Amino acid sequence: MIGIDKINFFTPNTYIDLVKLAKHRGIDPDKFTVGIGQSKMAVPTITQDTVSMGANAAFPILDKEDLEKIELVVVGTESGIDESKSSAAFIHQLLEIQPFAKSFEIKQACYGATAGLMMARDYIKTHPGKKALVIGSDISRYGLNTSGEVTQGAGAIAMVISEKPKILAIEDTSVSMTENIFDFWRPNYSDTAIVDGKFSNEAYVKFFNQLWEEFSKQTNYSLSDFKAFCFHLPYTKMGKKALLPLLENESEETKEILLKHYELSTEYTRNIGNIYTGSLYLSLMSLLDSSEHSLKANDLIGLFSYGSGAVAEIFSGRLVEGFENHLVNSTRQELINERQSLSIEAYETIFNKELPKTDGIHPLDESEFDNALFYLSSISNHERHYKKRQ
Predict the structure, then answer these.
(1) Partners of 316 in beta bridges
(2) Annotated catalytic residue, options 92, 232, 261, 293
(3) Are 307 and 336 members of one domain?
(4) Does 224 lie in the same domain as 266?
(5) In this structure, what CATH number is given to the domain that contains residue 182?
(6) Which end of the chain is more exposed for a tag (fewer CB within 10 A), N or C?
(7) Annotated binding residue at 188?
(8) Are the beta carbons of 376 and 46 closer than 8 angstroms?
């Protein structure tokens, strides 16, 4: 039995209220809050990036035993900080994980963390007693006053994978699918993504339908076997577009439980935005952290991971006895509740800031907004340096 032993997320301390943003842009707020289902959007300062957010997500859940037994550190991201050096190498150092661990980065749009999870599962099968750390860390950027502005966000998730998981045991059968398409991409020379929104939505739904058909064939599962289905959520309404057609022929009981749990799984995304590689696992935490779910040990949960370009996967897991005792939901809720709401001016100023690209020593100070434990403190002759607040 291998699966998720511990799980956590991090999001920056600053956000923009989307009703405020809609009014400033001259848009009906309902288009944001109802149409796509978003309320708030995380806005990272230049001192929060893939490395610092990933370290901030992982640090609270790691104990001495984890640091000694982790032999694999995988970071899924499409917001890499270097064309060569992996963000995982930085994170390995910041977290003080034992030195004989392999650390690297995976890229395939929003699918990267799932690729890391599956790799970690396979690694632990052949290395009994060891653990893996899987991180998904990203900043979603489409630009100010663009059609994609409202679906931006920032954050990271971290999962400890072990052979005796305390939260979710991952089942062996999973089904993946790849198709080379241009629904969403970001060239090396661009700091914002290019997206064909309508095509991307259609591709997402198509992938889910085809994968579900094959997955149900291989496992003999029907939707009625599941107590919840968690989705990659670029915005909260996306997964529902894929799920609803499959529910048309299901019983009222199945519809009710899956739709109830779907709504609970969207709460964190609604208040953080799109965090790319971590999105699916953010929805899982949102579901498990809710006081309104009716989940219990051995309940089956489906998971749909989608990365534009495109690779997707459906897999499943069963909740472990006592899973509710191993969540840090109160801490996560505090993180969301204690964030600082930005003015439009502050939001646009933070968004437009750029890191220095010249030789020399460039200290960075965003302490007015950024109070996270780990942060990017300076760039010295093109080297990134991070600090841990005392």
Answers:
(1) 302
(2) 232
(3) no
(4) yes
(5) 3.40.47.10
(6) C
(7) no
(8) yes
**Mean pLDDT over the full length of the chain:** 97
Of 328 and 369, the one with more pLDDT? 369
d(CA 277, CA 136): 5
Instruction: Determine which helix (DSSP H) or strand (DSSP E) holds 245, and give its type and residue range.
Output: helix 238-247
pLDDT tens digits along 334-345: 999 999 999 999
329 is in an annotated binding site: no
The pLDDT, as a whole number, for residue 191 is 87
CB contact set of 91 (below 8 Å; sequence gap of 6+): 51, 54, 55, 58, 73, 75, 103, 135
Distance CA 9, CA 56 (A): 8
Question: Which of 271, 305, 324 is a domain's end point?
Answer: 324
Active-site pick, 71, 78, 149, 267: 78
Task: Please tell me whether residues 269 and 129 are part of one structural domain.
Answer: no
Q: Is 28 annotated as belonging to a binding site?
A: yes
Q: Is residue 67 domain-shared with residue 8, that is, in the same domain?
A: yes
Q: Is 8 helix (H, G, I), strand (E, B) or coil?
A: strand
Distance CA 257, CA 260 (A): 5
**Same domain for 262 and 358?**
no
Domain tally for the chain?
2
Angstrom distance (rounded) from CA 31 to CA 18? 10
Catalytic site includes residue 110: yes
Whether the predicted pLDDT of 328 surpasses 90:
no
pLDDT in tens, 130-147: 999 999 999 999 999 999
pLDDT in tens, 175-222: 999 999 999 999 999 988 999 989 999 999 999 999 999 999 999 999
Q: Is there a binding annotation on residue 274?
A: yes
- In the residue annotation, 68 being an active-site residue is answered as no
Residue 157's nearest CA partner among 69, 70, 284 is 284
Per the DSSP assignment, residues forming a β-bridge with 159 are 7, 134
Does residue 81 share a domain with residue 179?
A: no
Buried b or exposed e, range 59-76, using 16+ CB within 10 angstroms: bebbeeebeebbbbbbbb
303: its two tokens? 């998971």
> Given 71, 92, 105, 110, which residue is catalytic?
110
State the residue range of the domain holding 99: 3-168+328-388
Residue where a domain terminates, one of 324, 348, 379: 324
Q: Which helix (H) or strand (E) holds 72?
A: strand 70-76
Q: Is the pLDDT of residue 22 over 90?
A: yes
Same-domain status, 154 and 105: yes
230 catalytically annotated = no
